[in-house]
Design brief:
Largest sheet: 6 strands, mixed
Shape: flat
């Protein structure tokens, strides 16, 4: 199962946000640095309104959402790459996840300690980025040393690795993350780069954490604006607005009560729902659906996966003995109201094992045991 790791400085709201995402109080969220030491892990359901529409067509009440894993990682501090604040341990936790949700504090509160003493979101982001870059430079140096003998004797693979490492190191030394370096790599080069396990090569999403009192003016909040500008300019990524404390409190309410409170605040949906959906996309995941007379279910797959690979997410026997996939897109199915009508209208198709599954496909697999 793919993992999204929540990172940031201490006391920015990471554990509070994790609790809100998980609708629990699993992670300690106290007002002091390094309240989290070991990472907190939890499986999160991906909100998807399409399940409700498909359940109406299937005439079932059971809806099973897609899932992925969230990891609450302890706060990094300046000097983490050199071991400060148990930095090496925390950096190893970041290495184990597939994407990063970088929480940035965008609120002033004298009752909540700030590890640097002042509120400067861009500076806070750069502290984290610098530590990740320094850790990656060390990783590159160790890898170059390991392959140095092979490079000297003219080994082609080692020489290609050395070339990639040189380009990556030059990019990192400019203060830029590895994922922003466009090398136009082929399959072999991509595999090598993945094998370096660079921290800054992971896709990233920023979460600007504000106070409930600031929600109404979020659009003009200068701290949020600076985070959005920085994220777009330096990482080419989005920024999600979140009020971790509010979301944590909402998680204790019944769904109907939470929705009513959000509407009172003039909000259409929970910030956590937006964050989960954004992290799901960040991980490169897409969704296909299945249904029977008992349930409708959403299944996560990687973007570009084939029908055979999608079948394998249900059971390995389905992929091994794949025969065909009966397929209809959820928009066509819900619009027409039944499989029979979708078939009559020509929207119900038979696809082979190499078919690239579209996000929102509803599928029935046929296989030979």
């Amino acid at each position: 199962m793919l993992k999204a790791g929540i990172i940031g400085l201490p006391n920015v709201g990471k554990s509070t946000l994790f609790n809100a995402v998980m609708r629990s109080h699993k992670a300690a969220a106290e007002n002091y640095p390094f309240c989290t030491i070991e990472p907190n892990l939890g499986v999160v359901n991906v909100p998807d309104s399409r399940l409700v529409e498909l359940a109406k067509v299937a005439k079932v009440n059971t809806m099973i959402p897609a899932t992925f894993e969230f990891v609450d990682i302890a706060g990094l501090v300046k000097g983490a790459s050199a071991g400060e604040g148990l930095g090496n341990k925390f950096l190893s936790h970041i290495r184990e996840v597939d994407a990063l949700v970088h929480v940035v504090r965008c609120f002033d509160d004298p009752d909540v300690l700030h590890v640097t003493g002042t509120l400067e979101p861009v500076r806070d982001i750069e502290i984290i980025n610098t530590e990740l870059i320094l850790a990656d430079l060390e990783t590159c140096a160790k890898r170059r040393e390991k392959i140095s003998r092979d490079v000297k004797r003219g080994d082609k693979q080692a020489m290609l690795e050395a070339h990639l490492l040189q380009a990556i190191e030059a990019h990192l030394n400019l203060g830029k993350p590895a994922h922003s370096l466009d090398l136009h790599p082929g399959p072999e080069e991509k595999g090598m780069i993945r094998g370096f396990f660079l921290l800054t090569d992971k896709p990233v999403l920023f979460a600007a954490n504000i106070k409930e009192a600031d929600l109404a003016g979020a659009a003009t909040n200068p701290h949020v604006a600076r985070v959005k500008e920085y994220a777009a300019a330096h990482h080419g990524c989005d920024t999600v607005l979140i009020c971790a404390q509010l979301e944590n409190e909402l998680s204790d309410l019944a769904e109907s009560e939470a929705q009513a409170y959000l509407e009172e605040l003039g909000l259409k949906e929970s910030g956590v729902a937006t964050l989960i959906s954004a992290a799901y996309q960040l991980l490169g995941l897409r969704t296909f659906f299945t249904f029977n007379d008992k349930e409708v279910r959403a299944w996560p797959i990687h973007a570009g996966d084939t029908a055979a690979r999608a079948a394998g997410t249900i059971h390995t026997d389905f992929e091994r003995g794949f025969v065909k996939a009966e397929t209809v897109h959820w928009t066509d199915l819900t619009k027409l109201g039944s499989v029979a009508r979708a078939r009559e209208a020509g929207h119900y198709r038979i696809e082979g094992r190499e078919y690239n599954v579209r996000d929102g496909d509803v599928m029935l697999f046929k296989f030979s045991p």
